UniProtKB/TrEMBL annotation:
This is Acetate kinase. It comes from Candidatus Marimicrobium litorale. The keyword Phosphoprotein does not apply. Its main location: cytoplasm. Substrate binds at residue 62.
Amino acid sequence: MNVLTINTGSSSIKYEVLDAATGDPVTRGLVEDLMTPEAFQAGVKSLIAVSQQHKVDAVGHRVVHGGNAYSDAVRIDNQVIDNIEHWSALAPLHNPRNLAGIRALMSAMPDIPHVAVFDTAFHATLPRRASTYAIDQKMAVKHKIRRYGFHGTSHQYVAQEAAKFMGRPLEELRLVSLHLGNGASACAIEYGRSVDTSMGMTPLEGLVMGTRSGDIDAGVLLAMLRDEFDNVNELDDFLNNCSGLRGLSGLSHDLREIEAAAAGGEDSARLAITVFSHRARKYIGAYTAAMGGLDAVILTGGIGENSATLRHRILQRLDFFGITLDEDLNDSARVSHENRVENLCLGHCRTPALVVKTHEEGMIARQTEALLRLGKPAQFGIPIAVSGRHVHLDRKTFARLFGTTAEPTHYKDLSQPGQYACQEKVDLVGPRGRIDGVRLLGPLRSKNQVEVSRTDEFLLGVDAPVRDSGRITGSAPIRLEGPEGAVSLPEGLICARRHIHMHTDDAERFGVNNKDEVEVAITGGPRELIFGDVLVRVSPGYKLEMHIDTDEANAAELASNTSGTIVYTDVDSATAELRVTKTRTGNV
Ligand SMILES: Nc1ncnc2c1ncn2[C@@H]1O[C@H](COP(=O)(O)OP(=O)(O)O)[C@@H](O)[C@H]1O
Ligand SMILES: CC(=O)OP(=O)(O)O
Ligand SMILES: [Mg+2]
């Protein structure tokens, strides 16, 4: 499949046609210096011309702000377009251009699929301490004010390349990645996950950029609104278009011109360079402290990849972090599509500083192809289903509890295909107490199985083992009472082991097998938690879903459910992510 990818940044359009199966480029190009609307329109036109010269099966579009609507790649339809538009005010240099590109290419190529890949997706794993601003949280919720983070596709790609270069698993590394282009951001990547990043609710926060201020005292904005500007649009233009390298130098947003002016003795150009580098250095220190260590620093983006002067200013005198910059290696480093990584430190250096040529286009093509092939995004969270206490019965026991002519009555479908909750309920009676009104799940099975939580066991006065569904030999006894009779089961009471139902396609995407044990991290919610010992159950008849009981859900503050029915909760504020870190039990 040939995928055309379009990466519209704030100063350029980078495009490629790639064979997604091999990753080989068919063609690639760069349209630079697109700061004016006219130049941008001309850029889009030239892109359409390129697309007509090659066989293109799908288009992958970079979209900068996905807000909280999308944390994964998505096929573009009218609703997606509306959402991208909705977030445009928060990414004014990007989303409107991303949309213009989408509209132009969709009308030029209406018969092939178009996919959006969001800069925000990789940062969906930010812990709350990093994503939360210190303001009234009611206000934060009302206005969706939080750190979203951007350049995620680039940070993720360069982290993967750095790990490959170092010959170490990404899951063992603490990395600081500096994407220094016309937009610039830092990212703390701890064991493969983004745990902090310098861009915030918008791509305006953090490092000094071509035309954006980055970090600034919010009090300055208040003062300027009071004393200088008549309305918020003027302030918006000032911070997004007239600040950063352009504002500092008074010359240009383009580092090449600033470096030339600084070499010619221009003081404002020198100031722009020192403020830029000082800010970037500070973030290396901050993120090293936040992660409690550092295994490598990565520089990427137009500036990181090309400017030895800025790299020197950012990385010099960091020996106390184990980074000893080798000036010759720094001066001679050249990265390209053929030679993607260069080490700026000598081999024995404890913490390498790596220049990595970013490849957002390749990542976008991969995610586009995966979405279209598998029908779902390549990276995604796992929906969590919270199971309340319930019973499964065999036909004989059902007849004794509900009468010989009774049949289970359908109440509502459950999410696993073919499974349903019934109208019928039974009472559980233990040596210490009883729990009334526990729902029957259908269809009837060959064995009785009663699933309760640890809290329920205390109530009943029983000690049930944690078991996989179906393994009831030697489990605890329990008495069941129904409207037509009672049955004392000698065994069948279990505390269900947490597990994930996966369709075979999901297992392929996650790289796991039936009966593997994995960890699932629940992040982004009010009580983050990692569940270990999670059993993977794979079948073509399953739908992706993790099942936990009410005690476990409460521990992670997911949903409160004590009603005795099954409640299925799609985690929204929290995101569940699979971490395949446990020893595999193998496919037995
Ligand atoms: N050889 C070079 N030396 C110094 N800076 C460079 C060089 N090549 C590109 N740059 C800088 O890289 C920046 C653009 O980065 P890039 O990642 O292409 O931007 P975008 O954010 O539009 O994707 C500009 O500031 C440009 O001056
Ligand atoms: C998010 C952002 O600033 O992107 P770019 O650097 O491509 O302008
Ligand atoms: Mg860019």
